[in-house]
Amino acid sequence: MSKAEKTRQFIIEKTAPIFNTKGYAGTSITDLTEATGLTKGSIYGNFTNKDEVALAAFDHNLKCMNTAVREQMDDQKTAKEKLLVYVRVYENFLYAPFPKGGCPILNTSTEADDTHPGLRQRAADAIESWKNLLSDIIKRGIADKEFKNNIEPEHIAISLIALIEGGIMIGKVTGKLHYRKAIMESITKMIENVGLL
């Protein structure tokens, strides 16, 4: 890495938790300078503007989240076990090696849906990629005769994502973590019975 690349990476790593916690609109240039110890000129000498920093921060947070999931998923053998990793990780995301502030897809989707097209597109692409990954796992489960072959992998995949993200959002906004726990229990039952749908 060149010195410029190291500086960019430093800025991303220091500001990513702030964007994921405060959101794009809530993060000020003062937040960025305080987090990095750099001047505004130094930050904008490495990034064109706040938008560029925010997009890089989203990518960083998403990579951290995906790494946390894949590390646990790699230890699982069956398709069902791989799907259940999401329940474990998301149920305990406050304690797992997850980005500070929680799921960047959820956080960015709820804030940037009407206000920041670039971030909205990043979140939409992340959901699409997640759906494709889950669909592939379910297809593997069908091929291995773990699941019945009359199920729709894409429908199940997008439903799992909606339930996971919805569970986090409901628990977060109400402050009632037992709501999230109840939804995660429902997701577990859905996965355990996916071959019966």
Automatic annotation (TrEMBL):
Domain HTH tetR-type as annotated: residue spans: 5-65
Q: Per the UniProt entry, what species is this protein from, by scientific name? A: Dyadobacter luticola
Q: PROSITE patterns of this UniProt entry? A: HTH_TETR_2 (PS50977)
* Classification lineage: Bacteria, Pseudomonadati, Bacteroidota, Cytophagia, Cytophagales
Q: What is this protein called?
A: TetR/AcrR family transcriptional regulator
Q: Which residues bind DNA?
A: 28-47
Task: Tell me where on the tree of life, at the top rank, the source sits.
Answer: Bacteria
Matches recorded under SUPFAM superfamilies:
Homeodomain-like, Tetracyclin repressor-like, C-terminal domain
This entry's Gene Ontology molecular function terms read: DNA binding
> Do you know which PANTHER family this protein is assigned to?
HTH-TYPE TRANSCRIPTIONAL REGULATOR LMRA, TRANSCRIPTIONAL REGULATORY PROTEIN
Query: What keywords is this UniProt entry annotated with?
Result: DNA-binding, Transcription, Transcription regulation
